[in-house]
Specification:
alpha/beta; globular; six-stranded mixed sheet; seven-stranded mixed sheet; about 45% helix; 17 helices; single chain; disordered N terminus; 18 strands; binds nicotinamide-adenine-dinucleotide
């Protein structure tokens, strides 16, 4: 008897986190779809690489032109799908991508072109060395929901300009933004097979890691990063891992309280605190502590929370119920251990299911979850310190090491502390903005990741370096080839002295002893 076999197709829903409205539903890509996308990308990549850097730069220029023209529409899609205020969609997403394109337009040719390498070793002086930067082939990109445009777009532009094809697996929470990126790139002249989006959950990401990609650029949580690193290790797949952060902000005793408290409030609540570079721990010198905490509390209470599509909104919704639960757990743990809530500390259910009030926690301690685990929500925990050394020790007392900031009127003092902090980036008198500096490498130390995106180092991640060595004396046997024996040994010792001994006399003696090694007949 025939039976109906029902194959469950996983659905991915794009939902507006402010209203709960379902924006669109997708069938999740399965293993086969992911493999097919990678195969198509591979087939198309060679022609893309053969175009040359200058032609690809022209495509990036056209992408930039189209993005600028469509900035308001794309910002609207970002806000509807990810919740952040329109102002932030323009500054932290569109502006960042326009400038990343500018950086590549201005610099990709110079950074990717062939580079001569001169040899210092006399034995290799007759060889001509060159560095070639060749595309990997197919780069897989797996991205998160919190910066659904700027993260995959900046990584994609670098991969494409270097001559790679890209298969992007965006977060299942923000597929529409990724498809907008695809439309812009395709309209600008990137062939459809050279940039593809596969929509799906974690399983589609795992399938991409297993598919025949040549490099993976992953941005997301430490937990997923560990899983990906383990899977990549099996097949020795090179990876960039841009993972979580628990960024400290150090407010020294000479800092401007008004300016630094505004920075703390913006740094903790921008994107509803869902930024890898958020101020997640704030340490303030005891002499400023009371005034600083009071200033932050006042500023936090004034923030307007609501739908990001409304122009007056400062703080939008969080992305998802599960993020809110983490925030609630961290705040409850802090309260239970003696922290004081000076602003917020609760959900704003009257606005919708995903809203949490900007929250200021004073008198936290280093042992609380709020100071140890990534909270990724609108919470600013503040604690006091007594000396610069103690501030540095507290800042470094973390598994994470993405970024940090130091606040002081004395830049030299700030820079000296910055050098002692274990992080990929340390800002003196600013927070977060380094992500928008296209020249600045972005990435972390410790569990915050491996490798870099953005700028020169981000572009270097998208190429394999090939060393091209040409011997300019094809008719000459090399001095180190066979013909070994006692005199070879003596002459080679002389050759080493000639190059590396201290003092002119020893070198000259070495040269005389070495003379035969050059002229000696080789097998
Ligand atoms: P996540 O790790 O849950 O997901 C990230 C991506 O990985 C998503 O596309 C997801 O579908 C995919 N994924 C999940 N399981 C997978 C698996 N087993 N194999 C392959 N792919 C898989 O992270 P998230 O919640 O989307 O993003 C928030 C996290 O990202 C935070 O920890 C934040 O700090 C971090 N983040 C880091 C940076 C940075 O540049 N360092 C930037 C933004 C966000």
């Amino acid at each position: 008897m025939a039976t109906d076999v029902q194959i469950a197709v996983r659905k991915v829903s794009s939902v507006n986190p402010a209203t709960g409205e379902i924006l669109r539903e997708f069938e999740a890509a399965g293993e086969q779809e992911v493999q097919a996308a990678v195969a198509q990308a591979r087939a198309a990549q060679t022609a893309w690489a053969d175009l040359g850097v200058r032609r690809r730069i022209e495509v990036i220029r056209e992408f930039q032109r189209r993005l600028l023209a469509g900035k308001s529409e794309i910002a609207g899609v970002i806000t509807r799908e990810a919740g952040k205020p329109l102002a932030e969609a323009l500054t932290t997403e569109v502006l960042v991508v326009l400038d990343a394109a500018r950086f590549l337009i201005d610099n990709a040719w110079g950074l990717l072109r062939e580079e001569p390498v001169s040899h210092g070793n006399l034995a290799t002086k007759l060889k001509r060395g060159r560095l070639l930067r060749e595309p990997y082939g197919v780069v897989g990109i797996i991205s998160p929901w919190n910066y659904p445009f700027s993260i995959p777009a900046t990584e994609t532009l670098a991969a494409l300009v270097a001559g790679n094809a890209v298969v992007l697996k965006p977060s299942e929470l923000t597929p529409l933004v990724a498809l907008e990126l695809a439309s812009l790139l395709h309209a600008a002249g990137v062939p459809e097979a050279v940039f593809q989006v596969v929509v799906g959950e974690g399983a589609a990401g795992a399938a991409l890691v297993q598919a025949q990609i040549d490099k993976l650029v992953f941005t997301g949580s430490v937990a997923t990063g560990r899983r990906i690193a383990a899977a990549a290790a099996e097949r020795l797949l090179p990876v960039v891992l841009e993972l979580g952060g628990k960024d400290p902000m150090l407010v020294l005793d000479d800092a401007d309280v008004d300016v630094s408290s505004s920075a703390a409030v913006w740094g903790a609540f921008v994107n509803a605190g869902q930024a890898c570079l958020s101020v997640e721990r704030c340490y303030v010198h005891r002499s400023l502590y009371a005034g600083f905490v009071e200033a932050c509390a006042g500023k936090a209470r004034k923030l307007r929370v609501g739908d990001g599509m409304e122009s007056g909104t400062d703080v939008g919704p969080m992305i998802h119920e599960r993020q809110l639960r983490i925030v609630e757990a961290h705040v409850e743990d802090a309260k239970a251990r003696g922290a004081r809530v000076l602003a917020g500390g609760l959900r704003l259910r009257e606005l919708g299911t995903n809203f949490y009030a900007p929250t200021l926690l004073a008198d936290v301690t280093q042992e609380m979850r709020i100071m140890r685990e990534e909270t990724f929500g609108p919470v600013l925990p503040v604690m006091a310190f007594d000396s610069d050394d103690e501030a540095v020790r507290l800042a470094n007392d973390s598994d994470y090491g993405l970024a940090a900031s130091v606040w002081t009127r004395d830049s030299a003092r700030g820079e000296s502390l910055a050098r002692r902090i274990h992080a990929g980036t340390v800002m003196v008198n600013d927070v977060i903005s380094c992500f928008g500096i296209s020249e600045a490498p972005h990435g972390g130390v410790k569990v915050s990741g491996i490798g870099r995106s953005h700028g020169r180092f981000g572009l270097e991640e998208m190429v394999r370096v090939k060393y091209l060595d040409t011997d300019r004396m094809p008719g000459m046997k090399k001095v180190w080839w066979y013909g070994y024996g006692e005199s070879f040994k003596r002459q080679m010792e002389g050759f080493l002295d000639m190059q590396f001994a201290r003092g002119l006399a020893s070198r000259l003696r070495g040269a005389l002893r070495a003379a035969g090694v050059v002229t000696r007949k080789k097998l």
